[in-house]
Each structure stands twice: as C-alpha cells, then as structure tokens.
Amino acid sequence: MRYTNFVDIMTASRMNRYLFACSGDSRKAMTLYRRNLQLSQEVFTVISCFEVALRNKIDNHYFHIHGNNWLKNAAGSGGFYDNPKNYNTKVVITTAIAKLNTSYSHYKLVAELGFGFWRYMFVDRQFRAAGNTLLRIFTSRPTSSFGFNYNHTYIFNQLAKLNDIRNRIAHHEPICFLAGQPVIDTTYTRQHYMLTLQLFQWMEIDEGALLYGLDHIVSLCDEIDRLR
C-alpha cells in the first residue's frame, strides 16, 4: 500500500509521530505502525492471561475462606463490603449481579468483573475488610525488609502499572515510543512485560508454559528498536 493511501485510512495526525520517528521514511513508518500493532496484540494477550490468572487466584483464595458466593454475600446485607468505606465495591458487585439477572452464577460474576475491580482488592479498605489474607496468593513474593515492604499497597501499585499499559492498548495508543516523544523506544513495554512475568512467578505460575506460542514480545521489541 502507498503511504498516501495508508494515511487516508489511519489519518495524518495518527501517523505523524511514526513518520517523524522514522526521519521521514514513509515505508519505515508503515512498518513501525504495523509492528506496534503486533506488539500491542501480544502484550494485551499476555496481560489478559495474567488478569484471568489473578482473578481466579483471588476467587479461589476467598472461596476457601468465605465460602460459596462470597462476592454476592460480601456485597449483601451484613457482608464485609456492606459498609460506607467499601460502598463503591458493593455497588460494582450488585450492578454486575443485576446485569447478569437470571443468568447469574458465581463464576459468571467473577468473569463479569474487570481488571480494575480485582486490582482494588489490594486497596487497604478492601484488603482489610476481607480479612488481611490476600497476599497469600503471591506465595513467592520477596520477603519485606526494613527498607522495602512488599505489602498489599505495593501489589496494588504494580497492578496499576499493568492496568495503565492495558488501557493504552485498548485506546489504540502506541507502546513503541519514549514517553511523550516521537522517539522509537520499547523500554516502557519491556518493563511492563517483565513485571507481568514477575507477578506470574510470585503466584507460582509457570508463565513460560502458559504463554507458549503466544509470547514473542522480546523479539518484536528488538525488531522495533532496530527501526531507529
């Protein structure tokens, strides 16, 4: 495809930073755009796998502590989210239950709740309301020291980073540039990818086996960096 046709479809405003990053080389700019799409697809897939693993770990943990339908019960009258501090969590759960309506099941409810919901399980008020036990799902996380605490707040902040790149991809923002600049650089993506693998490992999940055939992120990053 000619670059002019490519721009007609993708718009000049979207393509300008790719063209600038490639020093005006239009063919290279199209290649960079396509490689960014491939990278975005793979990163989104890996984070989606992580999201499913995380929510299932959380669900299994609380299932054994709080019993069947723990989410519905937690948001119900007298449940551990039925208080002013956890009002938003209660509303998210009850809204999801209402949306499912007659097709409700606990497992459908778990699947209905998004990454942001599960991330907020590590915010202090939700974490404490449910019993201060959720860090147990990260069995192999490092031991905290006097100078550094791998507590629930730390986990929340790490998950926020993954949510950030996930949202960037969902909103079709590039992940192949230096932050805020039209300069080819995959550091941001590599850092978030390594964080995802680290969190898999802390949950004692064999991420290599899980992502076999799906993960070519490092090689795609290398290809993109060679376009500089």
Write a structural description.
The protein starts with a helix and ends with a helix. It has a domain at 39-67 and 115-225. With 228 residues, the protein is mainly α. Helix content is 64%, strand content 0%. The protein is built from 12 helices and no strands. It has helices at 3-10, 12-21, 26-66, 70-75, 87-100, 106-112, 115-119, 124-129, 152-170, 187-202, 207-210, 217-225.
Please name the defining characteristics of this protein.
228 residues, mainly alpha, 12 helices, 0% strand, elongated
> What distance separates the N and C termini?
22 Å
Radius of gyration (Å): 21 Å
What would you call the shape?
elongated
Indicate the mean pLDDT: 96
Describe the protein's topology.
Blueprint: H1 3-10, H2 12-21, H3 26-66, H4 70-75, H5 87-100, H6 106-112, H7 115-119, H8 124-129, H9 152-170, H10 187-202, H11 207-210, H12 217-225
Helix pairs in contact: 2-3, 3-9, 3-10, 3-12, 9-10
